From TrEMBL, chain A:
It is found in: Cell membrane. The keyword Nucleotide-binding applies. This is Amino acid ABC transporter ATP-binding protein (PAAT family). PANTHER family: AMINO ACID IMPORT ATP-BINDING PROTEIN, GLUTAMATE_ASPARTATE IMPORT ATP-BINDING PROTEIN GLTL. Keywords: Amino-acid transport, ATP-binding, Cell membrane, Membrane, Nucleotide-binding, Transport.
UniProtKB/TrEMBL annotation, chain B:
It is found in: Cell inner membrane; Cell membrane. It comes from Roseicyclus mahoneyensis. GO terms for molecular function: transmembrane transporter activity. PROSITE patterns: ABC_TM1 (PS50928). Belongs to the binding-protein-dependent transport system permease family. HisMQ subfamily. InterPro entries: AA_ABC_transptr_permease_3TM, ArtM/GltK/GlnP/TcyL/YhdX-like, MetI-like, MetI-like_sf. Keywords: Amino-acid transport, Cell membrane, Membrane, Transmembrane, Transmembrane helix, Transport. PANTHER family: L-CYSTINE TRANSPORT SYSTEM PERMEASE PROTEIN TCYL (PTHR30614:SF0), MEMBRANE COMPONENT OF AMINO ACID ABC TRANSPORTER (PTHR30614). This is Amino acid ABC transporter membrane protein 1 (PAAT family). It comes from the Bacteria. GO terms for cellular component: ATP-binding cassette (ABC) transporter complex. Residues 28-215 form the ABC transmembrane type-1 domain.
Amino acid sequence: MTRPMLELVGLNKRFGDLTVLHDIHLRVGQGELVFVIGPSGSGKSTMLRCCNRLEEPTSGSVLIDGADITACSPRALNKMRLNLGMVFQGFHLYPHMDAVGNVMLAQVKALGRSKDEARARALEMLDRVGLRHKSDAMPSALSGGQQQRVAIARALALDPKVMLFDEPTSALDPELVGSVLAVMKDLRTSGMTMLVVSHEMGFAREAADRVIFMDGGVIVEEGQPEAIFTNPQAERTRAFLSRVRG
Amino acid sequence: MDGLDRFLNTFFNGAIFARYLPDMLAGVWVTIWLAAAVIALGLTLGLLLACLRSYGNRVVNLCIIVFADLGRALPPLVLILIMYFGLPGLGVRLSGPLVLILVLGFVLAAFAEEIFWAGLTSVARGQWEAGRATGLGFTQTLIHVALPQAIRLAIPPLVNRVLAISKMTALGSVIGVSEILAVASTAQSFTGSAAPLTMGAIAYVIVFLPLVILTRILEHRYAWKV
């Protein structure tokens, strides 16, 4: 494997008595796309949110390109988060700013770019997700798929080392899913390191380097997409896949 | 006809209107700057307190909540009388206008804090997460992401509160502040006529009706643009 861009070491997360993540070890190599599947409540979203400490891990560490994000000051955390682009299920665009404003804000305030620089970069990123013509549209005037692509542009504009996707297509109407997946495929081709939690099995088969199956807060099984989908080893994986396929 | 004459003479006596017009204009001016000072103090303080509250320090928040609850529970007139007639007993003598501005400003701040806070708490959690995930600090996310949304939500209830508090400048008449109502009731006791009071009512309408209309425009402007 290439050098790990994202590494989870012995990650644990407990809410009171409830153990949500138990001793997670995971390495995502540079340019690798790791796809996480598993039943609802299996801890996959929590794992993703621990990577940038939106959720505080109970113990263990998360390394971004070798730097430990779990052992840094609040100020350093803000800087470290610039290395991790995050895409949410619910888009979370800022409703009071147009598309280009959404992509500019953190560039100016967190990265310290000038407004002109940030605007140029924002337009470039909106172009990349196919929405340059919507740069001055307010989020409420955009479809779900368009909002999600603006959200991806917002994350990309900060030049992250790793992109985290938390069920990026789950809130979309079926006919809008394709446009978001196309952007993700383009990112994959350009060599972005990606950790994706999703139920888009077709996309996983086509684009993922590795698939991870989680259940009950642990990684049950991992392997090549083809191997996981056609010949799962664990009983829990088999049961989950047969349920998903219906 | 006799009845109508009596009515007009009681409430709309032209000679009395003319005689007290200069005093009334001075009163209008006093009411306007008092209201402006109260609004500036109340909104600024209310916004600052709501922002401070979002940092979640328990001691600070307890103080803010006590301030907001007392400010909303006590009738402003009680506070005005205590400060104007009570404080001199401690050797602190504040002028009537200052007492009025401080009390009404604090009362508005108490309401404004609660309204801004309600706005802040109704900003979706995901908005905060989006801000923080892109490397913005807490204060940056507060200022650039949460506050603009909270303020838009706060404007309709806020303008109503601002209007209600502004009209309470009439309480200044109790402590000798020569605003509209004080001028009117002084004139009423000199002339024995209700006409000055009518004049005061008209003055209030002239001062506050544009404000009411302005708030409609503001509410409209701050609605989400699509």
